Amino acid sequence: MKRIIVYKLIVFLLMGLLTGCVQPKPQRVNAEDHTEIKDSLTAENNENYQFEEEDRALIQNGNAFSLQLFQKIAAETKKSTFISTIGILYSLNILNLGATGETLQEICDVLGVDSTDLKRMNTLCRRMIKGRVKMQADDLPGLSSNLLTGCALFVKSGVEISQLFTNDFEHFYFGQIIQGSFDDKMQNQIDDWCSDKTDNKINHLPIEGDAQCILAVVNCFNGKWEKEFDTEKTKEEPFYGRRHKTVMMMNDADYDRKLSIAQRSDYSLLRIPYRGGYVMYVILPEKGKMLPSVIHKLTWKELQNAIDNLDYYDTVYIKLPKFEMDYNWIANKCLTSLGIHKVFGHEADLDNLNKDLYVSNISQYTKIKVDEIGTDASAITFEVLKAKEEKEPSVAYFYADHPFAYIIQDTFGNYCFMGTFWGD
Question: At what angle do helices 118-138 and 53-76 cross, to 10 degrees?
Fold first, then answer.
């Protein structure tokens, strides 16, 4: 009889705030917890972050998976959603460290990765986790955006975790393995870990009754606009969602060619840069087009084509809602519909983790806040923005006054977070 692993994924996102998440600190776990972090998230490394073609192909496959997952979520509801796609991707990669046989193959097929490429994939994830920390440290302290990752596996006393999994988890994902009785003391330890990794924004991850292990993966983003919105221009305006209502609408005009737009027959795509190389893409359906239909028809190649063909304008007038939301969801149904089945039942092959375990639940807790705050990066220039001679000034309008989708992409090109806003 297999025991149960409750596989919990915690994700927290905070954007547009002056104060962000604290940097993950390498921690030592006491001797009875039998684990020690062998590597630290340090900025003092000389890693080369120029990726090879094979690495970029893995990032593209990850983005294709992220879009498919997002489409499943967006199709289920006409309410605002928000998920960490990179959090799900990392959690499946970590699960694959312990998977074998058909369980391993199912996950690889859904992620678009050959099983022979897993070491390369995990090495790439390690480089990117370290790279984000390094890039933050290389910028002026406190002024750059950052995405920080923390991973821990909490294990009930008596449950054995293979040394192979332990070594790979610690090396590739800087993970901690913490073991003890699943009692009030362990509950407090889990909650303290969550609070530390999310800067006190998520403070509780419950131990479920028959849980044997809890895997927690935190991705905490603090994004600061290159050009902040003018708070004095934010005002209550109509939003035409499922029900007509009003929202606090941020208004601005860009004269510095920091914003760019791609116009398609069904939607317009707006690119808003953050400091540190991060980007938000906003997908706004054309009038008369429904957001679920636009998302359903979108493919990764079509989306990438729109990104590759963004146009700059002399002036861009923008309206974007100011909003804040919490979103909780269970990923089992969506992942099963994509083709991951065996890991959720007694046929799970997790021999490289513990052969008696299977996944009962993959759930995610997310938070997002979008407001006007950012850092003015007027010193950054773009050669492509040089004015063409004697041409009429170009003007574009991007008014997000009806339901839209959005993507947050990191400097390596990963789709890290995806969501929809319906005005609720």
Answer: 90
Residues whose CB falls within 8 Å of the CB of residue 290, separated by 6 or more in sequence, listed in order: none
185-203 CB burial, b ≥16 within 10 A, e <16: ebeebbbebbebbbbebbe
Question: What 3-state DSSP class applies to 154?
Answer: strand
Q: What is the pLDDT of residues 147-174, one digit of tens each?
A: 888 899 999 898 889 999 999 999 999 9
Nearest to 119 by CA among 62, 67, 58: 58
- The predicted pLDDT at position 8 comes to 37
Per-residue pLDDT tens for 311-323?
998 889 999 999 9
CB 413 within 8 A of CB 73: no
- What DSSP designation does 114 have? -
Q: How many whole angstroms separate alpha carbon 264 and alpha carbon 262?
A: 7
Output phi, psi for 133, to 5 deg: -70, -45
Find out whether 129 and 175 touch, Cβ atoms under 8 Å. Answer: no
pLDDT of residue 139: 63
Answer for the pair 282, 351: CB distance below 8 angstroms, yes or no: no
Measured distance CA(332)–CA(310) in Å, rounded = 36
* Structure tokens that stand for 394 in this block: 């170009």
How far is 422 from 247, CA to CA, in rounded Å? 11
> What residues of the chain score a pLDDT lower than 50?
6-39, 41-44, 374-391
Q: What is the DSSP letter of 90?
A: H
Gyration radius (Cα) of the chain, Å: 22
d(CA 158, CA 221): 36
Length of the chain: 424
Tokens representing 84? 């960490």
Q: Provide the residue type at 158 as one letter.
A: G
**Phi and psi of 118, rounded to 5°?**
-65, -40
The reported pLDDT for the residue numbered 263 is 93
| Global confidence as pTM | 0.85
- Residue 317 identity: Y
pLDDT, residue 2, reads 55
